[in-house]
Amino acid sequence: MEIQQAVVLVGGRGERLRPLTDSIPKPMILVCAKPFLEHLIILLKDNGIKRFLFLAGYLGDKIKSYFNEGDKWGVSIDYSFEKTPLGTGGALRRAMDKLEDKFFLLFGDSYLPIDYWEMSDCFIVSKKKVILTVYDNFDDTGVPFNVRLDKARGGVAAYNKRKDNPKNFDYCDAGVIAVDKEVVRSIKDKNPISFEESIYPLLIKEGELGYYVAKNRFYDIGTIERLKLFERYISEGRRQ
């Protein structure tokens, strides 16, 4: 597999999960007696990914004290810490020296059980600078569609993070991104910067934002209700 590194954003405060997140970071919330982030590590290791970089912020020391360098799980874990929120782009820019030439970018509160080997191959074949995973079943997730595809050209035609998107948006962002490091090198702005709001529009204009359609639904723990749903998924033995 071409992509060997998973870069995971684990710096969020998890305001909607308070008071659970008053004393622990959101990715460390227990799901069936394991931190959510541990379930994510196991999923990715099962897909052949053993090198991790955690982009940490809020209570990041608790993540590091639990996972350390990853020896217990047979993986390698490195860390990049931010003192104040830098946005997705800013956090990646800060960690520039630790990024591999191509990497998966994931969110520390989102879980997508796909074939990561297949997505890696899709990324390489596409020759795009970035590809998103997208999903098209609203009934499964209840997440508003925010992506419009140009299937004829094999790319994303529009991306809108707002919840009031027009009806011609037919997919939602499923939370896993394959990235060429060159995109991060191009970020010159020293201020906090969002991938979704600042980088995606440029990539779309250049025809460099591709997509991979996920066959399975994704889960996240952004709210108590979604946390309970993922806990049920895990408890039913879908993941050990």
Task: Describe the fold and architecture.
The protein is of the alpha/beta class and 240 residues long. The protein has a single domain, classed as Spore Coat Polysaccharide Biosynthesis Protein SpsA, Chain A. It is built from eight helices and 13 strands. The protein has helices spanning 36-46, 60-67, 87-94, 116-126, 138-141, 181-185, 195-206, 224-235; strands at 5-10, 30-31, 34-35, 51-56, 76-81, 102-107, 110-111, 130-135, 147-150, 155-159, 172-180, 209-213, 219-220. The strands form four sheets. A seven-stranded mixed beta sheet has the order 5-4-1-6-11-8-12, sandwiched between helices. It is globular. The two termini are 24 Å apart. The model has no long low-confidence stretch (mean pLDDT 89).
